Structures are given as C-alpha cells and as structure tokens.
Amino acid sequence: MTFVDVNENIRMSRKPALYPTKLDARTMKPTCYSEGVEHVQARSQSGPYGSYASHHFSEEIMAALIDAINVKRKMYFEFENAPFYCLESEISTPTARGGQTLVRLKMRNLITQAVFDKTFKAGDKFKEPDLQLDEASYLYSDADGSYFLDQATFETLTLSEAMVGDALDFLLEGAIIQIHKYNGNPIGLQLPQQVELTVTYTEPGVRGDTASGAVTKPAKLETGIEIKVPFFIKQDEKIKVSTETREFAGRA
C-alpha cells in the first residue's frame, strides 16, 4: 500500500507570490522575479532541492551582465560602482587581422550628472544597476535642496541642487515627476516629456510681424524661464513646453 502525504501535495501545489527583483536596463520594467523570502526558506528546509534552488537563483541574479557591444542609446548600466545612462554608442570594427572591436560610449553619470566619452573593448562587461523609478510630487525648494513627496510611501525625499539640475525651470508645486533611486537612495529625477506652463509676460503680436520675418517672440513663463513662442501667443495663455529642447510645443 502506498501512502500519500496530503500536506506535501498541498505545499507543492501552492503557487508562490512573485516579486520583481530586477529591472531591464533599457525599459526599466521587471525582468526577474523572486518567490518571496518565506517561500524560498520553506523550500530550502523541505526537500533535497530546496537550498540548491535558492543558491542557484541568487547566482542567476549576480550573473546578469551586459557586454559593452550590447549597450545601446537610452540604456542604463553600472560602471565603477556608479549608475550610467548611455547617450550615444558607436562601434569601431578593426581592419587589421587580430584587432579588437571597440565601443565608444557617450555616457552620463546619474549621480554627478557628468557627461563624458569612454572607449571599451566589445567584451567588457557591466552590471545592471539597481535602479528604480518612483512617482513623487514636487513640494518646494530652499537653500538646502528640493523636496518631493513619495506617492507610494508618503516619505519626504530631499534632492540636492546638483541632483535636480535645471529641472526647477519646469516644476510647479504639486507637479508629478519620477524620482531615480539607486540602491534605494534618491539620486535624481526624470521630468515628463512636456509640461504646461502659463505665459506671465510677452509683447502682443503686431500685424505685419510675419511679413517682416518675425515668426516668434520671447515669452516669460510662470517658473521664471524665457522661451521663444509664436507671435500669436498672448499673455496669461497656457502653453506646452518640451523639457528636452526647452522649446514651445503647442497650446495647452
């Protein structure tokens, strides 16, 4: 007669909860999931394969490396214990036999915001950085930095002037942005592609301006920045502004 351990069958049939543990370097979407600490611990104690599975899972995460030749524009990677963002990638193929394929990367340090070019061998490897994007709202700024409210934890996050850069040119109180975190700590922010701002001052358009070749005019916006706008835009009108080019992007 064969006896069946009902409790063991139940344990084996239960589906573990999955939690994201790693983000894709290009899309920042989860690519690897963990079964949760409780489930892995239970398996390591309840079967000959349990501890091996847990150890093997950890090795897979640690082994996630990116070859330099595979680093493309807008990808994230880790170099010398700092997270970087690839702005440009150029591959140089050798003409002589035995020559090495080289990869030139224009890269931005996400902590210092420094931008520079560096050449790597095609086979050089980078780790995927422990990066995450958390939604936050802008509160205010003072001499010590800028303050944001994490929309998930309601924790107040402080970013230095270097971390914020010129983003304050586009931020109003309550604006929703994305906070970059590296190893759980805030290191910078990501603005939306466009923001809506009100024109606080601009000269009125005069008939005949377009005939004389003047198709734009300066306009001061509510955050204090000044951009060029079409001559038909009026004071107190709300417009869209590109945060990348700092240019007029249409009426709001």
Describe this structure in words.
- The structure is a single chain.
- By secondary structure, the protein is mostly beta strands.
- The chain has four domains: 6-63, no CATH class; 66-127, SH3 type barrels (Roll); 131-181, Nucleic acid-binding proteins (OB fold (Dihydrolipoamide Acetyltransferase, E2P), Beta Barrel), CATH 2.40.50; 194-251, Nucleic acid-binding proteins (OB fold (Dihydrolipoamide Acetyltransferase, E2P)), CATH 2.40.50.140.
- The chain has helices spanning 6-13, 37-45, 50-62, 161-164; strands at 19-23, 30-34, 65-67, 76-79, 82-92, 102-109, 115-121, 125-127, 131-142, 145-150, 156-159, 176-182, 185-190, 194-202, 216-221, 226-230, 238-242, 248-251.
Sum this structure up briefly.
With 252 residues, this protein is mainly beta.
